[in-house]
Design goal:
alpha/beta, TIM Barrel, 8-stranded parallel sheet, two-stranded antiparallel sheet, FBA_II
Length: 286
């Protein structure tokens, strides 16, 4: 086990119909906590970084953290670049050891998106890496990327043609999901997932997972959503846990940063264990 390809992690999940948590980390504590949660749950996990995180910390530093924290790890793990429209950042991450990328050209016309995605797939293959693709913007802004305007959905034949010609390994359709916190219960297009998977048998990436109900997760995973993205839930867990601890520290007038880090890490680990149990991936690395 240890660091393996996205294809290996999702291939089994897709066949057995369970979901793998794909969690967006943003510092060393969250990376270590997500990995520790996966180990505790005996679950595969996909650690994701946004473009914002790559730029704020630096690809070489993140890569060094990743290598150190995954050395000897006993569950399957993968490092994925999430929602990246910048080809230079894609290249930088591939060179530094990311083994999966989402080249997000969804704001381009489909023909140009396809042309560039073909190039990214070819580049990724040179590094033994895999590619997630999408042709429709997922509603909501996260880490400075996206839009609150829902993009028009493409016809099924357009999606299938993109999958066939681009060579992507995972596809992320718009199904009524959204980044960030849901203001109301989303109306999800389960049939669209089923239609794509029936026609092409490709793992589907579910974006905007934070805030969906357990029933919604199960219905989508059963239809082929093998990669389940979680970002907002981790951010909220991290910030709220830290706030709660600091409010207690103020009341006690006791200021001990390592205790803060330990408490926050525990909450991150618990979140990941819960996600693995909810998505059915817990115990799959046993």
């Amino acid at each position: 086990m240890g660091v393996v390809s996205l294809e290996k992690i999702l291939g089994t999940a897709f066949t057995e119909r369970y979901g793998v948590p794909a969690v967006n980390i943003f510092n060393d504590l969250t990376m270590e906590g997500v990995l520790a949660g996966a180990v505790e749950a005996r679950s595969p996990v996909i650690v994701q970084t946004s473009v914002k995180t790559v730029r704020s910390i630096g690809a070489p530093v993140l890569a060094s953290m990743w290598r150190s924290m995954t050395d000897g790890i006993e569950v399957p793990v993968c490092l994925h670049l999430d929602h990246c429209p910048d080809r230079e950042v894609v290249t930088e991450c591939l060179r530094n050891g990311w083994n999966s990328v989402l080249f997000d050209a969804s704001e381009m016309p489909v023909a140009e998106n396809l042309r560039q995605t073909i190039e990214v797939v070819a580049e990724a293959r040179e590094y033994g890496a895999h590619v997630e693709g999408e042709i429709e913007s997922i509603t909501g802004v996260e880490d400075g990327h996206g839009s609150d305007e829902e993009a028009a959905r493409q016809a099924l034949d357009v999606c299938l043609d993109f999958i066939d010609r681009s060579g992507v390994d995972v596809f992320a359709p718009s199904i009524g999901n959204a980044h960030g916190s849901y203001k109301a219960a989303p109306v999800l297009d389960y049939q669209r997932v089923e239609d794509i998977v029936t026609a092409r048998s490709i793992p589907i990436a579910l974006h905007g997972g934070s805030g969906l109900s357990l029933e919604q997760f199960h219905a989508l995973i059963a239809r082929g959503c093998a990669k389940v993205n979680i970002s907002t839930a981790l951010k909220e867990t991290y910030m709220k846990s830290s706030l709660q601890f600091l409010e207690g520290a103020r009341e006690r007038d006791k200021w001990d940063p390592p205790s803060l880090f330990s408490a926050t890490r525990e909450e991150v680990v618990d979140l990941v264990v819960g996600l693995a149990e909810d998505f059915g991936s817990a115990g799959k690395a046993a």
